[in-house]
Design brief:
Elements lengths: L5 E12 L2 E13 L4 E5 L6 H8 L9 E9 L2 E2 L5 H7 L4 E4 L13 H12 L4 H14 L5 H4 L9 H14 L4 E5 L7 H18 L2 E5 L3 H7 L2 E6 L2 E7 H6 L4 H8 L40 H5 L5 E2 L5 E2 L4 H4 L1
Bound molecules: adenosine-5'-diphosphate (ADP) and magnesium ion.
């Protein structure tokens, strides 16, 4: 077994809010091997973004957030290292692309300058070479007329273009881990396909590992080898991608799979689709967290919190009855 590239161990992320302390990520453990592409799925509000931003340590640690547990990157604890050192890892060995690109771009520099600066931070190249590379990176992400776009400012670009600039920037330093948080949600399908191809190529050619957060189970099936399913701040299932579709174990995972619209338009109405919504963080059931929505929930589920059980191989599941409901 190779050493994991990233190891998240019993991570808890608490926020201090006006209504008291809430725990958005609760006892989350998983690992990503070098070159592995891991998907993270779950409805809105399940803690996917908070998990990824905790790994990057992007929250205000003085006022907002408190962490427990540990995160190892290349066997080194990054959760507790000084922010100064963390800055060197961030955007270098580990980089992230978000849903909302404009907040991460600097309005006063051209996109070319911003990409070139990232390149020059990590590679010994001249200004001219960095500029050339920036054009290439933009071309790779499918931006038309990149030699012209490279000299434009972020506000001159559409949302989709800005997202591609972000992706060019994140990939230009050739990170060993890319964290992608729904990066293509706002893009049209053609561009989305190009960006997924780009990520796949970088994964193959450079062994870049990816943590890919998405709503889109189609993307998961195309891209990922392993999948983490989150519900209300917890992991409820970890499985290989094939089993996610052929043999999901957790009732929540089954619900997600069954909610995928059938391509032939023939919706299987006999199959249960998850009803209701994810409870808010101040209403976390002191039991199985999915019990308020689960069609299989009984007294035990409504009283006791199940642990994440190691089923077999790489499979983990958090459900009292997964063996029974088959
Ligand atoms: N800065 C914050 N302060 C307080 N609560 C937050 C903050 N950011 C996120 N949360 C809460 O954490 C939970 C998980 O959010 P998030 O990780 O964004 O979900 P998602 O799975 O959709 O990415 C949500 O209930 C959200 O309201
Ligand atoms: Mg999110």
């Amino acid at each position: 077994m190779t050493n994991p590239l990233l190891e998240v161990k019993n991570l808890r992320t608490h926020f201090h809010t006006e209504r008291g302390r809430v725990t958005a990520v609760d006892d989350v453990s998983f690992s990503i091997a070098p070159g592995e592409i891991v998907g993270v799925v779950g409805e809105s509000g399940c803690g996917k973004s908070v998990t990824s931003q905790s790994i990057m340590r992007l929250f205000d640690e003085k006022r907002l957030v408190e962490y427990e547990g540990d995160i190892l990157f290349n066997n080194e604890s990054i959760l507790h290292m000084p922010q100064k050192r963390m800055q060197k890892i961030r955007g270098n060995d580990m980089s992230m692309i978000f849903q909302d690109p404009i907040s991460s771009l600097n309005p006063v520099y051209t996109v070319g300058d911003q990409i070139a600066e990232t390149i020059r931070l990590h590679q010994k190249v001249t200004k001219k070479q960095a500029h050339q590379k920036a054009v290439e990176m933009l071309r790779l992400t499918g931006i038309p007329a990149p030699e012209k776009r490279v000299n434009e400012f972020p506000h001159q670009l559409s949302g989709g273009m800005q997202q591609r600039v972000m992706i060019a920037m994140a990939l230009s330093c050739q990170p060993s881990l890319l964290i992608a948080d729904e990066p293509t949600t706002a893009l049209d399908v053609t561009i989305q396909a190009q960006i997924l191809d780009l990520i796949r190529d970088l994964n193959k050619d450079m062994g870049m590992a990816v943590m890919f957060i998405t709503h889109d189970l189609g993307v998961v099936s195309e891209l990922c080898s392993k999948v983490i399913v989150m519900y209300l701040g917890e992991i409820v299932e970890i499985t290989d991608t094939e089993s996610l579709f052929t043999n999901p174990l957790h009732p929540y995972t089954k619900g997600l799979i069954q909610s995928i619209p059938q391509l032939d338009g023939d919706r299987k109405d006999s199959l249960p689709v998850i009803e209701g919504t994810v409870p808010s963080l101040d209403q976390v059931p002191n039991a199985c967290r999915f019990s308020t929505r689960c069609p299989f929930a009984d007294e035990l589920c409504k009283q006791e919190h199940p642990v994440l059980e190691h089923d077999r191989d790489e499979k983990h599941v958090r459900c009292w009855h997964y063996k029974k409901i088959g």
